[in-house]
Design brief:
74% of the residues lie in helices and 0% in strands. It is mostly helical. The protein has one domain. α1 runs antiparallel to α2 and α2 crosses α3. The longest helix has 27 residues.
Length: 85
């Protein structure tokens, strides 16, 4: 699961299997949590890549927590829109 499309597919399959009774609700919940953790990793990687401007050297974020959250929300929205295309 290396793209948001992969995660979307995994989430859909999990939901289908849970509603069909092939997975218990607790199992489906655990799988969904793992999918969400993976999504956070992908978003964090993209955020790091953008902050580093493609450089391998880490860059310190000099903004406020509010600015970081705004950037995070922007990135997640853009990533979601990109995957829908």
């Amino acid at each position: 699961m290396s793209t948001l499309s992969d995660l979307d597919w995994a989430s859909e399959v999990t939901l289908q299997n849970a509603t069909a009774g092939k997975l218990g609700l607790s199992e489906a919940s655990e799988i969904s949590n793992m999918i969400d953790i993976r999504r956070r990793v992908l978003v964090a990687r993209e955020l790091e890549r953008r902050l580093n401007n493609g450089s391998d050297a880490p860059k310190k974020f000099d903004g406020t927590m509010e600015e970081l959250l705004q950037l995070y929300h922007k990135l997640t929205s853009e990533a979601h829109e990109k995957e829908e295309q």
